[in-house]
Amino acid sequence: MSHSASLEFWLRGPVPGVPALLQPVAHALLQAREELATALADFPPALLNERPAGLASVGFHLQHLAGVLDRTFAYARGEALTPVQQAQLAAETEPLPPDFETLTQLQQHFNQQVDHALAQLCSTDFAVLTELRGVGRAQVPSTVIGLLVHAAEHTTRHLGQLLVTAKWVRRDA
């Protein structure tokens, strides 16, 4: 492993094409993707739905990580959620098939959402960062930059919860 690859993403330099003010968002998402891949490299799929002490399962967090990126970046574009996005949100708490294919698909879906988010960051005009955007049915006010930063923060928060839950359920298995 090269020295730069052993560093966290924020220390590896700018992400090509991402505006300077949005680099922390890109770094957080790339760091989350890398840590998730490492943590789940040998995760037993049979443990996807385990909820130790009533905590959210690894499967929930995997679905939620991708869903949050999809939804918050849609709001940042000024879009309302589609019926598909609403259905995915409602399904995030449902138990999953505890198999390798499901685990792989969930990881791939998260990686795709990170790719979509990075592409959106690259095309985000600096001039729109402070524009207001409504969130949810109530159209709670936020801004483009507020939504993008929240997406990164929320991703890292749920990744941390997933990492702890994954260790816990492995230990108990």
Automatic annotation (TrEMBL):
Signal sequence extent: none
Domain of life assignment: Bacteria
UniProt domain DinB-like: residue ranges: 29-162
One Pfam family it belongs to: DinB_2
Protein's UniProt name: DinB-like domain-containing protein
Organism of derivation: Hymenobacter glaciei
